[in-house]
Amino acid sequence: MGFYLNEFKSIAAGVTLRHLLTHTHGLIEKDGEIIREFRPGEDWAYRNVGINMLIQLVSHVSGQTLSVFMQNQLFENCNLNETGWRTKQHEHLIYSYYEEKDTWVGPNNSDAGDQGNLFISARDLAKWGNLHLRKGYVEGRQIVSQKVFERITTFQTPDNIPAHQPRNGFIWSLQSDSPLSQLGGRLPSCSYQTLGITGCACLVIPKYEAVVVRMFNQLSNPIGYDYLSDIRKFGDLANDLLMSNEK
To answer: Which of 119, 138, 184, 244 is in Cβ range 3.0-4.6 Å of 235 for a Cys bridge?
Structure first.
């Protein structure tokens, strides 16, 4: 990490790209300072600091903001025409609550790709899942190397992570026996899923050659809401429907 981002050379010593991509880096931000939560590769915890480092790495290596890089390298090539970082408020886009006033997910309204204001349609989210299902092969073209997608969607979590913690490819959550798994227990072992800040989900089930998405345009949840139970139920319902269609 220090080779790419010198400002993190000390605190991120021993942290690799694989640690960042599997949420096993062990870094956390408290009171505006990044500190060590656990040694890299020894536990799992989703922390925004890891995602922010990945965004900075893209900019450092490519010389472009994440939004420009993704637009040029993927969105246009994959015909994701209903995807992008929005900087203007709209009644159909999610609002949240920041600093005693209504605003939307991106509190700084940045278009650099460094805020939570990436919006995507259900159609484009399904295309994103299909890009991974087909391992980068879209409309008769290999957009990105098949080997890249094989790494993204297969087990990459360090072997010594405690058994109760989730398992990941690169960012994507994989089916596992973990009690913290976000995938329904009835889904096949090959399944993988990614989630958005507003509760949307993209589930890929290679066994059925299927992609299933759900859209959920809000941040707050009712009292007593069980997130894990809800997202697992989504996966199990998708599995049951696809199984019934095979019969």
So the answer is: 184
Task: With cut-offs at 50, 70 and 90, classify the pLDDT of residue 159.
Answer: very high
Give the Cα separation of 130 and 124 in Å (integer): 10
Can you tell me the distance from the alpha carbon of 200 to that of 94, in angstroms, rounded to the nearest whole number?
A: 12
Q: Which amino acid is at 119?
A: F
Determine the Cα–Cα distance for residues 183 and 236; give it in Å rounded to an integer: 8
Find out whether 210 and 243 touch, Cβ atoms under 8 Å: no
Rounded CA separation 84/120 (Å): 7
d(CA 193, CA 231): 10
| Predicted local distance difference test score (pLDDT) of residue 2 | 56
Integer Cα distance of 38 and 162 in angstroms = 13
Main-chain dihedrals φ then ψ at residue 34, nearest 5 degrees: -85, 125
Is this prediction's pTM over 0.70?
Answer: yes
Q: Is the pLDDT of residue 165 over 80?
A: yes
Spatial distance between the Cα atoms of 155 and 204, rounded to a whole number of angstroms: 15
For residue range 181-205, what is the model confidence (pLDDT) as tens digits? 999 999 999 999 999 888 899 999 9
Q: Dihedral of CA 58/63/68/71: which sign?
A: negative
